[in-house]
């Protein structure tokens, strides 16, 4: 994976980046890592006591007796919302701005910590009045908004477990999650506004609830974003602004055990059914705080901006919890990077004096393209001098995009932190420390202190550095996934497979370690999961959606490298009738793309659909996906095809429609 010219492209942290950094210099990094090696429980226990205000202190750090169902700080008690709000107000920082919200149309709203606390308390009281209590699950299907964060925090305050569903998911996906998680309430908005376009969230929510098995959903609470027309069921629906109107702005937090599930977030796995990744309260919050301090070198004066959506893990850890737990000031953005033009991010950085900026490689690539085409949206046209550290997440970043980001956004001055982590890991795992780690484009560098990452083969044995293998984590860590909601067996099988010995956490990514530096480079997923614009999609999920269409007999979905989206979805489809050609094939491809959009969400729409009389199969009837991957890329088939039963099909499928 390593490019031959990568060696000389190492960027040392500048003297400025090192000076006063929370972790300054590699010696400091090594000392922390050595602390963790020496006394694992002592290391984590110390951090947890410092990062979190505990209502009741924990007496034990880590319990491995039910491995791989590890528990952390188990007898400690806390409340996440208390840690995110009350403690800052109590220590005299109530007037500090918590959120600078910029709406799609550019309208800016600021909320202080004291105001945020009052809003969360009022909403929590309103939820309580509707019977929502500790242990209940609440689905949140909302746009990027202060209200969305208030909703998450209010659930946390009551000890209710939230499950946020990304606003781009379809009614069917929303329904599936509501049922699986057993939600008693749904919090949504009338409409979402992005890039000048509206999306009728309430209408989609109504459709989802009408799909059956949702009887336990007693209340639907609606944030009025646009005032657009919505259908109303008075027995169930209520406006958010109406139900908080007469509530007190004092709400005693519900103290919960450290292992209490703060949230469940669905993500794609290698089977058709999304996994409900369950996170804890104590361990999760600890790592949200600690990685803000380490990876982003967060300081009180910083203005932090993470461009993710609260529907993804990045928006949970680095919008809804991490920054608030520190008492940080952060920017929250409703819209898209290309509206009203592709200079929006750069303008917002300048307008709000953002110092820590965190976005996805796919955004960087598309903004590079836009800047190349139109000089007026080039970052050079904006004053980005406030930036101190710039980060990326979500997918491997190609060295070209990394270098462009460092040069044009970071002004050759800001360290680039390429952060590898996952929904399941809760927070950053492998990432540079901006005041310590020399960076190399395309590498997420070294594991954070306390994270025991390694590269192994299919049997769990270490592979030599320089040789690719499977990325694993050798020891549990506080913010790790606790289980898959309702399916502990799947948790074990997915993350602690017996083939690897049952004690290594299997990330699902491939990686290679540099023999000289020990730096990790992530080579992408090793399972049937695609990464399109940083969004995780299961190939099986898309296949199931396709075969659910009345005309489709069989479908196989693979990823193809894409210059902008990282990977693109390519679907090979056979129909229950003759293979369509020409105009008809194009029409049908469009129908099926829209169908997938309806079934899962627009992010899952295949970029290309190819029709065949059959799919390439082995004699035992197994679809040979590796051949399809080559065909999708337009590569000649050089693999061994001796087990293929119907080689003639390759020619037919090799041609795009
Ligand atoms: C946080 C998040 C996780 C998958 C992960 C990997 C890919 C994320 C990456 C990266 C290379 C990085 N990924 N960050 N690959 N370099 N810096 O994205 O969570 O949505 O669960 O996706 O994304 O493949 O396994 P999630």
TrEMBL record:
The modification N6-acetyllysine is found at residue 622. Keywords: Acetylation, ATP-binding, Ligase, Magnesium, Metal-binding, Nucleotide-binding. GO terms for molecular function: acetate-CoA ligase activity; AMP binding; ATP binding; metal ion binding. CDD domains: ACS. One of its GO terms (biological process) is acetyl-CoA biosynthetic process from acetate. The keyword Cell membrane does not apply. Residues 541-622 form the AMP-binding enzyme C-terminal domain. The keyword ATP-binding applies. Residues 88-477 form the AMP-dependent synthetase/ligase domain. Mg(2+) binds at residues 547, 549, 552. CoA binds at residues 194-197, 314, 533. Its EC number is 6.2.1.1. Residues 29-84 form the Acetyl-coenzyme A synthetase N-terminal domain. PROSITE patterns: AMP_BINDING (PS00455). Acetylated. Deacetylation by the SIR2-homolog deacetylase activates the enzyme. Gene3D superfamilies: 3.30.300.30, N-terminal domain of ligase-like (3.40.50.12780). It catalyses: acetate + ATP + CoA = acetyl-CoA + AMP + diphosphate. It holds the Pfam family ACAS_N. ATP binds at residues 394-396, 418-423, 509, 525, 536. GO terms for cellular component: cytosol. It is an enzyme of class 6 (ligase). Coiled coil: none annotated. Transmembrane segments: none annotated. Catalyzes the conversion of acetate into acetyl-CoA (AcCoA), an essential intermediate at the junction of anabolic and catabolic pathways. AcsA undergoes a two-step reaction. In the first half reaction, AcsA combines acetate with ATP to form acetyl-adenylate (AcAMP) intermediate. In the second half reaction, it can then transfer the acetyl group from AcAMP to the sulfhydryl group of CoA, forming the product AcCoA. This is Acetyl-coenzyme A synthetase. The gene is acs.
């Amino acid at each position: 994976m390593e490019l031959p010219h990568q060696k000389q492209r190492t960027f040392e942290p500048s003297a400025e980046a090192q000076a006063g950094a929370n972790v300054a210099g590699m010696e400091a990094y090594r000392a922390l890592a050595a602390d963790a090696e020496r006394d694992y429980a002592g290391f984590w226990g110390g951090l947890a006591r410092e990062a979190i205000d505990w209502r009741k202190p924990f007496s034990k750090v880590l319990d491995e007796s039910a491995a791989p169902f590890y528990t952390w700080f188990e007898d400690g008690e806390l409340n996440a919302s208390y840690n995110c709000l009350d403690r800052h107000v109590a220590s005299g920082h109530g007037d500090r701005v918590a959120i600078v919200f910029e709406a799609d149309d550019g309208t800016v709203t600021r909320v202080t910590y004291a105001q945020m606390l009052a809003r969360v308390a009022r909403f929590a009281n309103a939820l309580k009045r509707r019977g929502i209590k500790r242990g209940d699950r609440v689905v949140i299907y909302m746009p990027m908004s202060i209200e969305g964060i208030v909703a998450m925090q209010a659930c946390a305050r009551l000890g209710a477990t939230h499950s946020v569903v990304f606003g781009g998911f379809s009614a069917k996906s929303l329904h599936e999650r509501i049922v699986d998680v057993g939600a008693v309430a749904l919090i949504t908005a009338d409409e979402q506004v992005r890039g000048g376009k509206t999306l009728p969230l309430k209408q989609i929510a109504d459709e989802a609830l009408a799909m059956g098995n949702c009887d336990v959903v007693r209340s639907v609470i609606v944030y009025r974003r646009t005032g657009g027309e919505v259908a109303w069921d008075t027995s169930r629906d209520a406006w958010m602004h109406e139900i908080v109107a007469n509530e007190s702005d004092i709400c005693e937090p519900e103290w919960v055990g450290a292992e209490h599930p703060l949230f469940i977030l669905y993500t794609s796995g290698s089977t058709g059914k999304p996994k409900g990744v369950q996170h804890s309260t104590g361990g999760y919050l600890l790592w949200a705080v600690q990685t803000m301090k380490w990876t982003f070198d967060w300081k009180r004066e910083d203005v932090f901006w993470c461009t993710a959506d609260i529907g993804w893990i990045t928006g949970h850890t680095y919008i809804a919890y991490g920054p608030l737990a520190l008492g940080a000031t952060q920017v929250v953005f409703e819209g898209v990077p290309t509206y009203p033009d592709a200079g929006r991010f750069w303008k917002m950085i300048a307008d709000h004096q953002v110092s820590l900026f965190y976005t996805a490689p796919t955004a960087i690539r598309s903004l590079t393209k836009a800047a190349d085409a139109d000089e007026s949206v080039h970052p050079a046209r904006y004053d980005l001098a406030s930036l101190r550290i710039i980060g990326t997440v979500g997918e491997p970043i190609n060295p070209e995009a990394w270098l462009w980001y460092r040069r044009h956004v970071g002004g050759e001055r800001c360290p680039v932190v390429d952060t590898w982590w996952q929904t399941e890991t809760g927070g950053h795992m492998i990432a540079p420390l901006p005041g310590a780690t020399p960076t190399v484009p395309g590498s997420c560098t070294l594991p954070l202190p306390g994270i025991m990452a390694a590269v192994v083969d299919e049997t769990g044995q270490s592979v030599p550095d320089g040789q690719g293998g499977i990325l694993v984590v050798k020891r549990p860590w506080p913010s790790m996934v606790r289980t898959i909601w309702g399916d502990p067996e799947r948790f074990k099988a997915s993350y602690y497979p017996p083939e690897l010995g049952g004690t290594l956490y299997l990330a699902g990514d491939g990686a290679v370690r540099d023999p000289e530096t020990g730096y990790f480079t992530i080579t992408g997923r090793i399972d049937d999961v695609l990464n399109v614009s940083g969004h995780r999609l299961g190939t099986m999920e898309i296949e199931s959606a396709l075969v659910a269409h009345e005309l489709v007999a069989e479908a196989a979905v693979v990823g193809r490298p894409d210059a902008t989206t990282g990977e693109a979805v390519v679907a090979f489809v056979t129909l229950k009738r003759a293979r369509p050609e020409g105009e008809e094939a194009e029409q049908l491809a469009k129908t099926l793309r829209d169908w997938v959009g309806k079934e899962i969400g627009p992010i899952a729409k295949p970029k290309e659909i190819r029709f065949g009389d059959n799919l390439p199969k082995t004699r035992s009837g197994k679809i040979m996906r590796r051949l399809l991957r080559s065909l999708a890329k337009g590569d000649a088939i050089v693999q061994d095809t001796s087990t293929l039963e119907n080689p003639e099909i390759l020619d037919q499928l090799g041609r795009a429609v």
